[in-house]
Amino acid sequence: MVTKPCEELNPFFHISGNIDAATWALPAGAIFRLGRGRVRAMAFSPDGTYLAAATKIGLWWYELATMQPIALWETERGMVSTVSFSHNGQWIATGNDDGIVKVWDVRQGVCIAEMDRRTHARQLGVSRLAFSPDNRCLAVTGTHDAIVDIWNAESGTRLIQFYSASQIVSNSCGIIRPVAFSPDRRLLACLNPTDSISVWDLNADVCIATLTEYTGVAESLCFSPCGRYLAVGGHGGVQVWDTNTWEVYRTYADYDTSRVSLAYSHDGGLYATEISDNTASVGDVEQGEKRWTSVKKIGSFQCAQFSGDCQFVVVGAKEWTVWATGSSQSHKFPHSHTTFPDSVVFSPDGKTLAAGSWNDGVKVWNITYPSHPPIHFDLPGKNHCVSLSPDGTFLATGIDRNTVRIWNVGETTPRRTLALSEKDRVVCSAAFSPRSNLTACGDNKGNLHLWGGQHEGKRHILTAHQGAVDFVALSPDERHLVSMSVYDAQDSQLWNVESGETVDMFPNNIKKIAFSPCGHKIACGMQKEILLWDVNRHRTILTLPHAQQSWWPFALAFSPCGEYLASGAWWHRGMRIKKVAIRLWAVSTGENIATFRGHPTDVQCLAFSPDGMVLASGSYDNTFLLWNMKPYLQTNVSL
């Protein structure tokens, strides 16, 4: 079948460059958004003009020539996991982690069909989408099941379903399950959870071949334009089958060390996109030559996409790298698709925000220009936590095996390096107090290590828990220390820093804590509630219960005045919520003053601005939302 050539798109949604993308699709109460969500999948428009990027907050549209954003779609729920254009460019399909598939009219900007996989799949996420060559059908695979659905793309009616709903994938993280139509629409190839590949005759609704010769983990399938070959690539090289005999036509062994994604060009050439930790490249498979290569020194690539007309886009930790059709020169564009934050702190003037992440260093945002990409500071180690020194300098604490380092952000030499003398010990958590350089860390054997100021040695080595010490926190007045074993022993301890002794009657089964600015209160996040603990009297003074849709309040922050507490929930499957809750509490009464919903998944960290008028929430969706607190905080409270 010959597909009708796509027409040049004339999108309805082109937005003036004067409108700040940081304000697009904001939830009620938010001032703006920092970051655009990590890129999970990409697709070129068939006319080669646009790039659609699936992220956790929605679907971003980019003009390919400038890599400037022109629209943000599908933000009601977000968590978009995959995207695909119809061959004529009139429709675009999105799939998300909840199992919802939508087909959109590109010119009108409206959803014309919605399909829900939740009717038959216990585990829901959408893995891959593929339009048939005649644009009438849409094939859908899931991340946790062995089901393949074929839907009418315009009406959303299910036409065919292969496999059974009882075949569930045991891998909790899900898998990539590529799916592809043959050019004549007669065949459908898809990856099975068992790593074999099934080929179905759609006219007869029967499986005509099961291909088991590929020994790696397949991540892409594609038919040649002539329909004679089926190519597969992934972790394990490249193989090509003859579709007449279903025997292996050729194996290419030079692609067994990287993630490989395959695409046929319009003239029938087979190209392989390879991604390793710090290198992404496209090569002509049959010629055995690399055409385009992108290398970065630190970090890893998020995603890469190659089109049939030989356009290539790589998204790295800091920038897009783009090769246009017929050009050997790349163009680089900074972006804001960053990794998710674990900690956050404002500058003293409230105009700058620093964020630390687990394994991607520190990022610093100029809030005055929220659409500008952040400044990246690559640091060795992991679990980077940010804080603020008394002179207003951003600091970062990081761990690297048995060593803790504290950095002035922007400097290349750490201001302090502390190593455990026991070589079999691994640092699992660390906390730093800028006030006097007091440093604490927990190791994998359940011990706490506490160092004094800049010129002091180690004060204490404390036996704290039966399992690894997953979390430690120092009070602002440096009098107390909290340690927690979240995953092993699941217990908590409150310590006197000076004596190294425990404080009686501290609650267990806590997942996260926050000290009040004075250090006299501790907010303890538990599964269904928050406890406010009085440090001096050793007892709970308030319990803040959560509604079921706000369970897991594991991000906590007190306002600078100590009169208010913010809590951010984690998302949990089965509750059918589109956005998780951020709640503002009055500490004196336990009243829930306000509730905000903007992030589609876990809130990881919270911080108030120095004047308390802005709340920053960092999420696993890889963005920050800045919320206006002025309507809710008493104006007569001294900040």
Please describe what this structure looks like.
By secondary structure, this protein is mostly beta strands. Among the domains are: 1-166, 7 Propeller (Methylamine Dehydrogenase, Chain H), CATH 2.130.10.10; 511-639, YVTN repeat-like/Quinoprotein amine dehydrogenase (Methylamine Dehydrogenase, Chain H), CATH 2.130.10.10. 0% of the residues lie in helices and 48% in strands. It is built from no helices and 55 strands. The protein has a four-stranded antiparallel β-sheet, with no helix packed on it. The radius of gyration is 26 Å and the shape is elongated. The model is unreliable at 1-5 (pLDDT under 50).
How far apart are the termini? Answer: 70 Å
Structural class: mainly beta
CATH superfamily of the domain at 1-166: YVTN repeat-like/Quinoprotein amine dehydrogenase
The geometry reads as: elongated
Number of strands: 55
Compute the average pLDDT.
89
Helix residue percentage: under 10%
Question: Can you tell me the residue ranges where pLDDT is under 50 for at least 5 consecutive residues?
Answer: 1-5
